[in-house]
Amino acid sequence: HYLSDHPYFCGDGINDGYKLKINQEWFDKLKDSGMTDRLAYHFASLFSHDSLVIFEDRLEFDPDSTEHFENLNSTNWNSVRFKPPPSYDSPIGWRVEFRPVDIQTTDFENGAYVALLNLLTKVINDFDVDFSLPISLSDINMERAHEIDAVTKQKFWWRTNIVKEGSDYTKNPAKDNNWAFFGEPDQNNFDPSNFAEMTIAEILEGSEEYSYKGLLPLIDEYMALNKFSEEDLKFYNVIFKFLAQRGRGEVKTGARYMRDFVLNHPDYQKDSVVNEKICYDLVKETTLLGARLKWDESFLGVEGEELEYE
Question: Which Gene3D superfamilies match (predicted)?
Fold first, then answer.
């Protein structure tokens, strides 16, 4: 199950008909040891698989080490992966990996997606909002995302009522915004009326039709409330303008850029054969872009070229 979020992250309402194979013996042991049902279910699902790899220098079993567990956990490639500390005395804390995003051609693009996700986690924590979807809708989104030009041609299921069930709406720092949130929390947080099909542009920038503010405006509001410096605001505004342009189709995705490069190459005969010369030129082109030795505004927008980052 490598497409959707893992059910231990959320309540029963979101796991509509989604069942995983588990190791019942380990589920019972973990529950008896004090784990919650949800967390025990997660680990029991990991223990239902055989290890894919094992390292020669790790054949001897150390009962005080978590290396064997790490070996098993790290070879389950979920879209969102829960990672406990590697050992009881490790300075590394509890982590959740967000894994669906492919590595991009340039550092600028990678930085933009990382910045978006980083600030979005802060928005979720500070504004107490909820973007969760039923697994069935997440699966539909995954399938649609694989289509050509999905960013501009597909719609994706998204939550319109993002006020978290049980949260105190009156104490939310963004409550006074004219349409930051859609009314009061719904007692049935997984009612079908709380979800709608939106374009990527609407998900990022908002939809008046659904009284949904959008990820980027919510992040703007978070930065204003937390008094980000003028320098930081300038940096993030350039990045988020680029993401908005990509969502609207004003700049190309990496897939569309490479597809157009091949289609317009003088050696391409429109026969679906990408020969060695085309491959070489494409790799050369993307290498120049990745090293910032070339900037293509149709791919990366206008303002990012002057952005300084390490």
Answer: 1.10.8.960, 3.30.590.50
Could you tell me which residues come within 8 angstroms of residue 201 by beta carbon, excluding any fewer than 6 positions away?
244, 247, 248, 249
The pLDDT value recorded for residue 127 is 85
d(C-alpha 213, C-alpha 160), whole Å: 9
Q: What is the pLDDT of residue 50?
A: 76
Residue 267: CB atoms within 10 A of its CB come to 12
Q: What is the pLDDT of residue 310?
A: 57
Q: Are the CB atoms for 199 and 246 separated by under 8 Å?
A: no
- Asked whether residue 188 carries a pLDDT value surpassing 60, the answer given is no
- Measure Cα distances from 145 to 98, 111, 151, 206, 236 in Å: 16, 21, 7, 19, 26
DSSP assigned state of 105: S
Other Cβ atoms within 10 Å of 27 Cβ, number: 20
β-pair type (195-198, 80-83)? unpaired
Contacts of 21 (CB under 8 A, 6+ apart): 45, 48
Q: What is the mean pLDDT of residues 267-294?
A: 96
Indicate if the pLDDT at residue 172 is higher than 70. Answer: no
Percent of the chain with pLDDT over 70: 84
Q: Which residues pair with 159 in a beta bridge?
A: 195
Q: Does 15 have pLDDT greater than 70?
A: no
Tokens of 129: 């909002």
pTM of the model: 0.81
CA distance 174 to 177: 6
